Amino acid sequence: MTQKKNPTFNDIAKYTNFSKTTISRYFNNPDSLTLENQEIIADALVKLNYKENKVARILANGKTEFVGIIIPDLYHHYYSEMLNQILSTYETFGYKFLVFIGNKQEETERRYIQELLAYKIEGMIILSHTIPSEELARLPIPIVTIEREDESISSVNTDNYMGGYQAASLLARHKCDVLIHVNSPTNENVPAYGRLLGFSNFCKEHGLKHEILLRELGHSHQVAQSVLLSALEYLAAHYSSQKKGIFVSNDTHANVLLNLLIRRYGYLPDDWLIVGFDNSPISREAIFPISTIGQQIDKLAYEAVSLLVEQMNERKKRKPLPLEKPIHKVITPVLFRRATTEKDELKNL
Predict the structure, then answer these.
(1) Over the stretch 278-332, which tens digit does the pLDDT of each residue have?
(2) CA 266 to centroid of chain Cα atoms
């Protein structure tokens, strides 16, 4: 059997009694037609069983409907879940994604950006921290960042200060003798610095004994395990008879610490309480579900894509209005109490 040919613009024009120019406007600039005429053409496409040629459309109007993503790594469960949530917005916004993993290599990321631009992407979402926002702002497409330095570019972030404050408050309510925050060294212009600041300020305001442990935790399991094992041994030696409330900067590393404690003691001792940050899947799937400050990753992803789409749509107008200043959206974190602080839950596992 011969395959039935896809209807051409000329076929659609004859069927609807419109010109080929009008049919072309329907595909490339539908807002230039009345709603009535759009509905007539849409109905004709269904009846003629028209299948859109995406490649031809891209060649005709230069709009690829592609968005680039640069992500630091997929070791941290937060990033893999964020990527999952961003990709799931296709059903809502209709944009496809080209993804590169930067691995903290600045020149590599610059090369990736140039490659993405060569594919005529319409916008970009950046989660990596390597390239300054001032440099990103000079690129010829709209950009939205998530949880990174964002002085010169639009962004969507968690209220990290509130999250750090919530973590310290939870540990204080459990009457810990000392509160400890474990984190990698973080620049003050990065949103995640707010976790450290919120934690520290709560402890100071309430006169609580506390310590900030800054260690380069790395981007691999091997490095994180080695560094956190050293931190565990330090804490066990310095606070051996005290109830320790530990706020770890993300759920991936909180889970590594939890596993190290279980290997050391055979169980989770009553004098070790752990709170993570993210509410990524690992916090729920850990051998003992981890209490965490939830970033509402689904909302962060949706708001980032939504903000980017608004800016991309503005650029498609005949007289686009330039963005006067970057837009910064902030999402409120949510506290999840689980077995690593609510020890009664351990009995039910």
Answers:
(1) 999 999 999 999 999 999 999 999 999 999 999 999 888 878 888 889 999 999 9
(2) 35
Burial of 251 (0-12, 13-18, 19+ CB in 10 A): buried
Which residues are paired to 154 by β-bridges? 144
Query: What is the rounded distance in angstroms from the CA atom of residue 269 to the CA atom of residue 238?
Result: 16
Whether pLDDT at 348 is above 70: no
Give dist(CA 252, CA 274) in Å, integer.
Answer: 12
* pLDDT (tens digit per residue) in 319-338: 888 888 999 999 999 999 99
pTM score of the predicted model: 0.83
Dist CA 248 CA 235 (whole Å): 13
Q: What angle do CA 192, 198, 195 make, to 5 degrees?
A: 20
